[in-house]
Amino acid sequence: MIDQTIRQIEERLRGLSALPEDRKVELFALLKNLREEIAAMEHSRTAETHALATSLASSLAATARPGPASSADHLRASVHGFEDSHPRLVQLVNSLSTLLASLGL
């Protein structure tokens, strides 16, 4: 589910012709790193990891469709409680959400 949502975001980014190429490269690298981090977490199969993966999937799905809340808000809310136990994931999501917000996505 998460991988599918990340693919949807990637497709949406590919369709943004006004987005500078360097920003696209940066976003795709962040999404790749996010996918790898989530895959590593899913492999551990802990209850916390499952809860985070489910929450992240919901938040990433929200970024793929228009709505009143920004993508950054959804992503930040999904990982707030996991910052201590998953610092790398939080760093990736914060970077991604900040970049998406700066682009108005």
Walk me through what this model shows.
- This protein has one domain (2-16, 26-102).
- It has five helices and no strands.
- It has helices at 2-14, 21-44, 47-63, 71-79, 87-102.
- The relative contact order is 0.15.
Fold blueprint:
Elements: H1 2-14, H2 21-44, H3 47-63, H4 71-79, H5 87-102
Helix pairs in contact: 1-2, 1-3, 2-5, 3-4, 4-5
Largest sheet: none
The Rg value, from CA coordinates, equals 13 Å
The general outline is globular
Strand content: under 5%
Helix content: over 70%
Structural class designation: mainly alpha
Order of helices and strands: HHHHH
Tally of structural domains: 1
Helices, by number, come to: 5
Q: Any low-confidence stretches, pLDDT <50, length ≥5?
A: none
The total strand number stands at 0
Please give the alpha-carbon distance between the first and last residues: 21 Å
Mean pLDDT: 76
Q: Can you describe this structure in just a few lines?
A:
The protein is mainly α and 105 residues long.
Question: What distinguishing features does this structure have?
Answer:
single chain, 105 residues, mainly alpha, 5 helices, 0% strand
